[in-house]
Design a protein that fits this description.
By secondary structure, this protein is of the alpha/beta class. About 15% of the residues lie in helices and about 30% in strands. It has two domains: about 90 residues, 3-Layer(aba) Sandwich (Udp-n-acetylmuramoylalanyl-d-glutamate--2,6- Diaminopimelate Ligase, Chain: A, domain 1); about 210 residues, Hexapeptide repeat proteins (UDP N-Acetylglucosamine Acyltransferase, domain 1). The protein is flat. The strands form five sheets. It has an eleven-stranded mixed sheet, with helices on one face. Strands 6-9-12-15-18-23-26-29-32-35 form a ten-stranded parallel sheet, with no helix packed on it.
Length: about 350
């Protein structure tokens, strides 16, 4: 998309963007970094060094952090100011996002859609999609090619399912969610009974998965259905790639989960749960609201208070960082301890 004039940017809501200088005679065709400016591009600037690079590269328009704007502004460049670059990017970049426009309009001729499905207005369904009986799809939703939506699924309005997404029977996905490629929602939970002969009997997983509104899931996530009730991902939560939410779990609202996160069955994660990559939470635990985990943390016991934690065994983050910094010196500490023991004639 090309923004043809500064007023197009000023019509954006939820940002303090102001046009402070210059005008645009040519459309803005793209967004560039200060280091790699393209012709007719818009550049975001948050440091003085980036400002110098953007001006030298002759950007068509600059959105700059208000506090770094110089007194003298360059000619022939349209300048916008903002107090929050990150927030402004969330509002401006969608104007240039071709990914959101990639779904062909309407229902592709190769899609298999049950006559018993209810399809809302302005729904886009890609090639080779399968949609089962009693499925309900809200207005403005898009489903990418080769996706499978089994019977009795409900998908809200304005949700995007990218290519190769699987949604198992009876699952519910809310409004304006964004589910990326190869993600599986509603696969069977890992439930077995093992007898004294080590024979494993499958416990049928007859529950479902409920995804709240405004949830985003990265590529290749797996959300297991509950044994009886629901596995729940709360509204506003964001999951990175390769995350696994096991059966009967609850992920609280507005959680932020980095790549490679695993949580075992029947664990409750509170609201605003936040974790770095490759973290693990064990089974049947309760994690309080507002918990933040450092990357590669492992949780094996309940966390009853919000705050920052890290390491394995898990500790408050300050203690975990001290432990981590000490580990590299363990060999040297042991050598010095042996010297002390020898001088004191104390046997090891």
């Amino acid at each position: 998309m090309a923004v043809s004039k500064p007023e197009d940017l000023l019509n954006i809501s939820d940002t303090d963007l102001k046009h402070v200088h210059g005008s645009i005679t040519d459309p803005i065709h793209s967004v560039s970094t200060p280091e790699k400016i393209k012709k007719s591009s818009l550049v975001f600037v948050s440091t003085k060094e980036q400002w110098v690079a953007a001006v030298a590269g002759a950007a068509s328009a600059i959105i700059a952090l208000e506090k770094i704007l110089p007194t003298e502004l360059p000619k022939n460049i349209s300048i916008f100011s903002t107090k929050n670059i990150k927030l402004t990017m969330t509002q401006v970049l969608p104007l240039f996002d071709k990914g959101t426009k990639k779904f062909p309009k309407g229902i592709h001729q190769t899609a298999v859609v049950s006559h018993q499905a209810t399809i809302g207005k302005n729904v886009n369904i890609g090639a080779h999609v399968f949609i089962g009986k009693n499925v309900k799809i809200g207005d403005g939703t898009s489903i990418g090619p080769n996706s499978v939506i089994e019977d009795d699924v409900t998908i809200g309005e304005g949700t995007i399912l990218h290519a190769h997404v699987y949604v198992g029977h009876n699952c519910i996905i809310g409004n304006r969610c964004d589910i990326h490629a190869h993600t599986t929602i509603g696969s069977d939970g890992f439930g077995f009974y093992t007898d004294n002969q080590y024979r494993h009997y499958k416990v049928p997983q007859i529950g479902n998965v409920v995804i709240g509104d405004h949830v985003e899931m990265g590529a290749s996530c797996c959300i297991d259905r509950a044994t009886i009730d629901s596995t729940i991902v709360g509204a506003g939560s964001k999951l990175d790639n390769l995350c696994h939410i096991a059966h009967n779990c609850t992920v609280g609202e507005n959680s932020l989960i980095a790549a490679g996160f695993f949580v075992a069955g029947s664990t409750h994660l509170g609201k605003r749960f936040t974790t770095g990559g490759n973290s693990v939470v064990s089974t049947q635990l309760h994690v309080a609201d507002g918990v933040i985990l450092a990357g590669r943390s492992t949780v094996t016991n309940d966390i009853n208070e919000g705050g920052q934690y890290g390491g394995y065994p898990l500790q408050p983050l300050k203690d975990a960082l001290r432990t981590l910094s000490t580990l590299g010196n363990i060999v040297d500490i042991r050598k010095k301890l042996n010297v002390v023991l020898k001088k004191l004639n104390i046997e090891d």
